[in-house]
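Researcher: Next sequence.
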Amino acid sequence: TLSRLPEGKRLDEVSVSNDLREYLQCAGSAGCMMVETRTVAAGGSEQQFVVGSPADKNDAMRSVEVSWDSFVTGVQQNEVFEADEAAAIFFAYYETARIPSTYVLRPIEL
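Model: Next structure:
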């Protein structure tokens, strides 16, 4: 998980579940991972998205299972990344606090 520290808090004072409202995270393995981001809308509500590459209709229809720990999540084919591309997304987010415009976001339930 990558996020800015809340104002006035040190890293050892932060609770990921309680203090981080906006972030970028990934799950899976180096060869098959998904990337998610949470943002806060203008009205203050939190929105969660899966990050994906632009896809044609066939890619969006194919589901891939991403496994981590004891969990399995189904995502679309265009939402699966290898570690090097995910790292580039994380680096861009680190520099700008945004997902590069070359990617698409699919909303998911919190």
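Model: Residues 49 and 108 are 5 Å apart (CA to CA). The chain has a mean pLDDT of 91.
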